[in-house]
Amino acid sequence: MKLAGKKIAVLIEANYQDMEAWYPIFRLREEGAEVLAIGTGSSPTYEGKYGYPITVDFSADQVHADEFDGVVIPGGWAPDRLRQYKTVLDFVRHIFESKKPVAAICHGGWVLASAGLVRGKHLTSFIAIKDDLKNAGANWEDKEVIVDGNLVTSRRPGDLPAFMREFIRLF
After folding, report:
1. Helix extents (H) in 4-126
2. What does pTM read for this prediction?
3. How far apart are CA 62 and CA 119, in angstroms?
4. Catalytic residue among 64, 94, 107, 122
């Protein structure tokens, strides 16, 4: 159990991409991590794009980034909502600046951009937000997974095995 003793946040909001949240949750738990779903506080339970609900453990304003060893930002439309909350952006920024692993898949890159973390970084995402990330200063490439320091990014659900392999490797 490679991640025993590690505490990892998965950020959740309405219309998250179901597989991009649940696959990491189960994979990280399989490795022994304590995984907590962290929401914005707008609801105790959020439905994914395909209707699967997640009841969050806490909202971002109820936790402190120092308590966590890493964070996963799933895609879907949730990142467009997540990035509107200062507490979420501060949480992600603090984990990143603490040199702890930060992983974003699909539209999750929107949160990274809004937190001011992409300038000069080599990363990938779902192609629809490529221009947003490039305009925020990222060096974007269409690849299954990219690791730049403590940042792991991927494009879509089909990239999840590589995405999680690289995220876990950072620990």
Report:
1. 18-30, 78-82, 86-97, 109-114
2. 0.98
3. 29
4. 107
Which of 22, 138, 159, 160 is CA-nearest to residue 78? 22
pLDDT at 92 (0 to 100): 98
Domain membership flag for residue 72: yes
User: Which CATH number fits the domain that encloses residue 98?
Assistant: 3.40.50.880
Nearest to 9 by CA among 39, 47, 49: 39
Residue at 105 is within a domain: yes
106 catalytic per annotation? yes
Among 64, 94, 106, 122, which one carries the catalytic annotation? 106
Return phi, psi of residue 83, to 5°. -70, -5
The predicted-structure confidence for 138-161, as pLDDT tens digits, reads as follows 999 999 999 999 999 999 999 999
122 is catalytic: no
Q: Provide the residue range defining the domain that includes 27.
A: 7-169
Which pair of structure tokens corresponds to residue 163? Answer: 């995405």
Helix (H) or strand (E) holding 166: helix 160-169
